[in-house]
Amino acid sequence: MTLTAIDLFCGAGGLSAGLEMAGFRVLAGVDLFEAAGKTFEDTHPEARFIGKPIEDVTIEELVETTGVQPGKLTVLAGGPPCQAYSVYNHQRGMHDERAVLFKQYLRIVEGMQPEWIVMENVMGIYSIGGGEAVRAIKAELRKLGYEVEEQVLKAEEFGVPQERRRVVFIGNRIGAPIRHPEPTHGEGLEPFTTIKDAIGDLVAIENGEDRGPVGYAKPAWGDFQKYARSKASRTVHNHSAPKLGKINVERMAHIPPGGSWRDIPFDLLPAGMKRAKRSDHTKRYGRMTWNGLSCTVLTKCDVHWGAYIHPEQDRAISVREAARLQAFPDWFEFSGSRTDQYVQVGNAVPPLLGRAIGQTIRQLIEESSRSKIAAE
To answer: Into how many domains does the chain fold?
Structure first.
């Protein structure tokens, strides 16, 4: 059984990597971000990258690129850009042109007629117009013959060392049952993957340091590090930290593991935070703890906005550390500037979450196939 997929709004290809781990052949990825496209091409050699606005991508081009005729594709996946939906964007709304990009996704669904669809987005999608975006997505897909269910998935429940909540839509037009992945980590299951599990084997670097490809500080231990070093990874790329100014270095020196801006002496606080209540901004200038989970990895691991300070070293986490916290294996090398690399990492679906989604769809396909055989 050949399982095929196309990934729209693919970015660097985190969801694609997860689907490939689950046994799917990803045939193409579509995105406008040039640096992410280079990463996608380098890490998904069997797939073709289409670098253009999605509104310019035709069904004919997808058929020619992938060799798959309409109705024959297994999964059409994608997460329309999330900025318009994010709780960090206080101007979000259905009028935002980015909030209607899912209509382009629907256009391609209609043209390619995949058996299954997967859409991923941020929690903020629920609050647009009191749920208008969610209702619109499901209603439009139903018009095209797809039954769809959405569910909030917690990345840490699938082995990702990070607290991350995402809304995942799964649907099909073939009458198969729909369900979402069952957690594998948590109470009564496998233990959560901690920050130490994720990045404890990486070499120490200084604030602003970029030594290029480096080896590991110690042998791999634990399932996650063995997973990260799969494909015989012997060197680490993208282990590069941003250069923080002298005042931020002084601030970090006062913050213990698990601490935050509240631990910074008053005279060293940014002007705006001198007026803040101590109950506000709980994650700002947060230092990670080895035995905890990371906060949500964003497109900027800016210590001023979140808990992105290394557990022991007075610096922000490197691109590679952010990638590990997003469950990217080390063979996944990110292209572009360091800023571009952080954006690619922060925008991605964690591959382990993508793998869980892919495995669940594969199970549903196999169950549906067995039911058809039994009924004949």
So the answer is: 1
* Candidate list 10, 82, 295, 301, residue with the active-site label: 82
In a domain, 33, yes or no: yes
- 3-class DSSP state for residue 261? helix
Q: Quick one: which of 365, 339, 334 has its CA closest to 114?
A: 365
CB 301 within 8 A of CB 322: yes
Segment 212-226 mean pLDDT: 95
10 is an active site residue: no
CATH number at residue 100: 3.40.50.150
Q: What is the pLDDT of residues 128-180, one digit of tens each?
A: 778 887 888 889 899 999 999 999 999 999 999 999 999 999 999 999 999 99
Token representation of residue 277: 């209540």
| Residue 99 in domain | yes
The tokens describing 309, both together, are 């300070």
Residue 306 in domain: no
**Alpha-carbon distance 125 to 105, whole Å?**
16
pTM above 0.90, yes or no: yes
Instruction: Say if 12 falls within a structural domain.
Output: yes
